[in-house]
User: Fold this.
Amino acid sequence: MTTTNVGAEVSAELLALRADGQALVTTLSEAVEQVRGHDHPQHGGDLYCLNLTSFMGDRMPSVLRMLAAERAEVDRLAQEANRVRREAAAMASAWRLRAINLRRTLESRTLDPEHAQSLEDEAALWERAAADLVEQAGIELPK
Assistant:
């Protein structure tokens, strides 16, 4: 299905981005430790620190872009999850309503036992499907 392929592509891209980003963040954290871990001269001419700080500053735009891209992807996925939950709730409500209408048909008409059992089985099927969807989607429907 297209959604699964898109999800797999996005997952692969995020994993690659995270791997690259993790290496960069590790390098930056090591540089910070190096800056913090050595003695600084009193007169302020610490070329070692200036060099490492410059190194970190040169790489920071990549880190910020990576973080912004991941944040945007998280927001997009949250919106998609909310959309799917809304659709699941609408579908489960429709299925529950179908079961209710079938049971009303059973109550309002005199049907032969075989037909009545068939309608009852169908109503039970719709109710089970709605309950399963509600459980899988992690949603709640009004009673």
